[in-house]
Amino acid sequence: MAIDGHRRVSHCRKVGLGKSTLMKYLYGHRRVREELQIWAGNTELVVASFFFWRRGTLHQRSLSGLLRSLLYDVLRQRPDLIPDVFPNVGYLTQFELEHKEIQAAFYRLAHCSSLYDTTKFCFFIDGLDEYEETLRDDYRALVQLLLLWTQAAPHGIKLCVSSREYSVFLNIFSDDKRLRLQDLTLADMKSHVRERLKDLDEEHLAPLVDVITEKATGIFLWVALVVKSIRARLEDD
Fold first, then answer.
1. CA-CA to 195 of 20 to 30 Å: which in 19, 44, 47, 148?
2. Which helix (H) or strand (E) holds 190?
């Protein structure tokens, strides 16, 4: 599940669907790495991640933080790329880079066509909706930047991103280019309701399953709490 020059996939969700948990799972899962390595072929695979968090520090909710984090992960794995990405830094051990310098560094990384003969990149970016918009950079600017990366290196960079179902994301990522987590968990939610309320006769259970899962809009925690409440009432009766 990734974004590249030909296919773009975005996990979209409502609050409480466990999207961040899924992203962490995908980022660390052995099978995902194996599939990415197949895509990378004989080249070196570099995987990095960033999780936006609106209530966190400035770097955790800003574009500068995203770029700094991804660059750090990339250069930690491939320190030989430092001279190409930061040609004017030299060998300083401590320095503070301004946002425009970070942007320029990432631009050099994304547009270094010769690099992709030996290296492939996959970036997992969670919570685009947690990004803090500014007067200069809004959600659309953020997504357009991500698309520019993949367009610059259609065979060298993949992205796996997630967001809530805001219009700006839905308009850019069409239905065939995204997954809705609530669609994937519907069967599990129905199974949970049936298992926990199996003492009810089918005549009452079937419509209850449909009503609960429909009103949950994909939020498993809501289903669990409602089922728990129903079980408590049944036991009281």
1. 19
2. helix 181-196
